[in-house]
Write a structure and sequence with these properties.
Elements (H helix, E strand, L loop, with lengths): L6 E3 L4 H9 L5 E2 L6 H10 L4 H17 L5 E11 L2 E3 L5 H11 L3 E12 L2 E8 L2 E4 L4 H11 L15 H4 L2 E5 L2 H5 L3 H10 L13 E7 L7 H11 L4 E7 L4 H13 L4 E4 L4 H7 L2 E2 L1 H6 L4 E3 L5 E3 L2 H12 L7 E5 L3 H12 L4 E5 L3 H11 L2 E2 L14 E4 L23 E4 L8 H8 L3 E3 L1 H16 L13 H13 L4
Helix pairs in contact: 2-3, 4-5, 9-17, 13-14, 13-17
This protein binds 2'-monophosphoadenosine-5'-diphosphate.
The site of 2'-monophosphoadenosine-5'-diphosphate has 15 residues, from helix 14.
Length: 488
């Protein structure tokens, strides 16, 4: 993408190269010849702190290459700190096993230094310190982990590869940027590369991005928190606002024209405007057409409508129940949200989808369109015993709404119960399911995941992609907000 100046990564790390590539940076790799052990020995002899040591190592690796090279050279170093001690990469599997056994159930830090030199001089330094908590594990679980991943873990200081599903499964909590955890603080680096003119002069001072969410009412929306947090992390200037617009189409269309005139990149659209958004757009994605409603409008010459509810439902399902085999599912409700869920279930290859709704005709109409089996709406759901997944798409159970009275006696012990309601976070349905030992997924998961395509489209409108991630920090921010409102 960038051609203005050569960019060189002074690191032999495959994952660092993969992260730069993922962000569409054109670069070459030169492995630095710096002798890390000399610096480490000197640092520990002089009582130097670990942060300073990591910075010195990053600088040394960077300069070993930069002294002979024009352009931008990137160097990085990562030190694992556990109980005040620094840890190096394990030398063999026995040490890796001992390392993980010691760290299980505890929190450690990854001290990450990333630096950049320009024409032989360091021009930028960045230090981050993500914190990671490994869940408590038995010796047998640790053995099984190493059996699965093999000796690739020897290339990581923590004896884990967080980027693999098995590695990610080791953690109870990861606090800090995901890419930094893997070895390079990509977002601060991208901001610096932009300042250095690597992506072209026009990107040196990009215009702040404007986006928002349109609804009525809208003050309760958590979307501004999600997008503004992602923008802050990615060092992108801009703002995502909550905008209230009266429910009729004319008011909506006028408001959208105004946002476009103000230079908004796009907007999420929620109740009661999802059909209005589809009508307003010139073009629409297949997902929006299938669902018959849009929750995203991307402006530009021709407004484009999309629907990320289905993808959000699916992504949250896979994130919370990786590898689940969902052959039979039961959907409660037959409104707009149910359409998105049914489309997602079709998409993941769910063979049998059962639907039930207070107003049976609506379930029948949806059933005909998507080939679903319509069940009676009753507290004891017929056919629940065969379901791998039960999804509530109605507003029942939401704060201020009547309870959803469902008897879960027939629920399979390995079934997943998914409620798209997020206030309260644990609806009576989810509590009941949890108490029966079922896996549960709450509506906040879907809310976070459905936000990702909009963020990538509007804030990521840069010469490189940004990767908005759902993680523990984001979840905690939202749960904290719901708690303050008394909704969690
Ligand atoms: P959404 O776009 O969120 O799906 P919707 O299209 O208004 O909103 O659909 C709301 C769903 O919740 C419907 O399935 C509705 O059932 P009806 O089709 O019978 O109206 C369901 N729902 C809302 N209030 C309900 C209640 N008190 N009892 C049972 N179902 C209810």
């Amino acid at each position: 993408m960038n051609n203005n100046q050569p960019v060189i990564l002074a690191s032999g790390s495959a994952i660092r190269a993969a992260i730069l590539k993922h962000h569409e940076i054109a670069f070459s790799v030169i492995k630095p010849g710096a002798d890390e052990s000399v610096i480490k020995t000197q640092a520990s002899a002089s009582g130097m702190g670990l942060e300073e040591t990591a910075m010195q190592l990053a600088e040394a690796k960077c300069m070993a290459v930069a002294k002979n090279q024009k352009g931008i050279v990137i160097g990085a170093d990562q030190i694992l700190e556990f109980r005040g001690e620094a840890y190096d990469k394990p030398v063999d599997m026995a040490e890796a096993r001992a390392r993980l056994s010691e760290m299980q159930g505890e929190t450690h830090s990854l001290i990450n230094a990333t630096v950049a030199a320009r024409d032989g001089e360091i021009v930028w330094r960045n230090l981050e310190r993500p914190r990671l908590t490994i869940r408590s594990m038995t010796g047998a679980e640790i053995d099984a982990y190493f059996e699965e991943v093999g000796d690739g873990v020897l290339s990581s200081v923590g004896a884990y590869q967080v980027e693999t599903p098995a590695g990610a499964g080791l953690f109870k909590r990861i606090s800090g940027d995901w890419f930094t955890v893997q070895g390079i603080a990509i977002y601060p680096l991208l901001a610096e590369l932009r300042r250095q003119g690597v992506f072209g002069e026009q990107w040196k001072n990009p215009k702040p991005t404007l986006a928002g969410v349109i609804g009525f009412p809208i003050s309760h929306s958590l979307s501004p928190l999600i997008h503004n947090e992602w923008a802050r992390r990615a060092r992108i200037e801009g703002e995502y606002r909550a905008i209230e617009v009266a429910s009729d189409y004319d008011a909506f269309a006028t408001a959208m024209d105004e946002l476009q005139a103000q230079g908004f990149a796009g907007a999420n659209v929620t109740i009661p405007h999802k059909e209005n958004a589809l009508r307003y757009a010139y073009r629409a994605s297949d997902a929006a057409k299938t669902i018959g409603a849009a929750n995203m409008l991307t402006f530009g010459d021709n407004a484009y409508a999309d629907n990320s509810d289905s993808a959000g439902f699916k992504d949250a399902l896979w994130a919370n129940a990786p590898g689940a085999n969902i052959e039979t599912a039961m959907v409660l409700g037959a409104g707009g949200a149910a359409r998105g869920v049914v489309a997602a279930l079709r998409d993941i290859g769910c063979k049998e989808i059962r639907i039930t709704n207070r107003t049976r005709e609506k379930a029948e109409a949806l059933g005909k369109e998507f080939g679903l089996e319509v069940m009676d709406w009753s507290a004891r759901l017929p056919g629940l015993d065969a379901c791998d997944l039960l999804v509530n798409t109605t507003s029942l159970g939401m704060t201020g709404q009547p309870a959803l009275e469902i008897d879960l006696a027939d629920l399979r012990s390995n079934a997943i119960v998914y409620d798209i309601v997020y206030a309260p976070l644990e609806t009576p349905l989810l509590r009941n399911a949890r108490e029966r030992g079922a896996a549960t997924i709450n509506g906040l998961e879907m809310l976070m995941h459905q936000a990702r395509p909009g963020f990538a489209a509007w804030f990521g409108n840069r010469p490189y992609p940004v990767s908005p991630r759902v993680d523990d920090d984001l979840r905690e921010l939202l749960v904290g907000t719901l708690k303050k409102r008394g909704a969690a």
